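Quick question about two entries, pasted in order.
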Amino acid sequence: MKLNNKVLLALLGVLAAIFLYTQYSGNKEGTFKKDLFATDTAKITSITIYPNKTPGKQLTLNRQDDGWKMTNDSITNTAVEPSSIKSMLSTIAQLSVKRLAAAGKDKWAEYEIDDNATRVVAKQGSKTVLDIYIGKFNVGQPQNAGSADENFNPNQMQRPTLTTYIRLHNDDKVYAVDGMVGAPFSKQPPTFQPKVFEDTQILTPDTIIRQPISTE
């Protein structure tokens, strides 16, 4: 009986060690869910942006029958440029964790990810489906396949790696994700409005004023 208890305790110790390792180790890809931020963007009905540069000036975008509309403290139910909302939804859809950058608040300042960072909240009706803080953005050295790859071209310009650090609301962990996540959410409200082009006159032979040609 004593032997069985020792075996049981040993197994519990191993399981506890595995749990702690998967929760706090950031060196292995298998220690987190790459789809941690997975969200069905087709079902998102509202997006609220709490900008870091203007605290208290949140902007809410709502999906309506005739398109997306935005509201803040100075505008109400104003139309949103389709390309702007498309960019936001595309960014949300492509969120994929590369690695766990930090496990605690002690690294928040380094990654500029404290409670003053830009916050994005997406909802499906009254249900929150995504609530993240967007922090620091880094441009890294290009990652190429190397000369061992038969398709490698040393003369071809390689793309740099783009990394943004984000975290979930009410979670201390900081994650590194691909891309410039903050870009679509950092614009000022006027830039979200549909572009208006002034009418331009189309020149035709009848609208061109013919000038006499001098023979002097």
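Here is the second entry:
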Amino acid sequence: MYQRKNSAVQPNKAQVLRQIGEIVRRERLAQEMTQAQLAHVTGFSETAIGRLEHGQAGISLDRFFDILWALDASEAVCLKMFQIDAQARAVRS
């Protein structure tokens, strides 16, 4: 039977979402895109893009990849995002 791990050792989800949002924002600005343009390309609302960039919203992995592709995110950017999660998980060890 699956048992939920102690929440005291779980990564800080809010912190991870904020860090990922910062990376998305940085990449969007590097591509010289507005939130409205990114929203149009990905099918998100402009509000949803803003919330994501501020770490206030989680999205499915499928939709997350839509954003990465729209930003033409490099492999290095993708790895950086996954390192954030790995670092957060290492804290609990």
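Reply: Residues 41 and 70 are 7 Å apart (CA to CA). The radius of gyration is 14 Å. Hope that helps.
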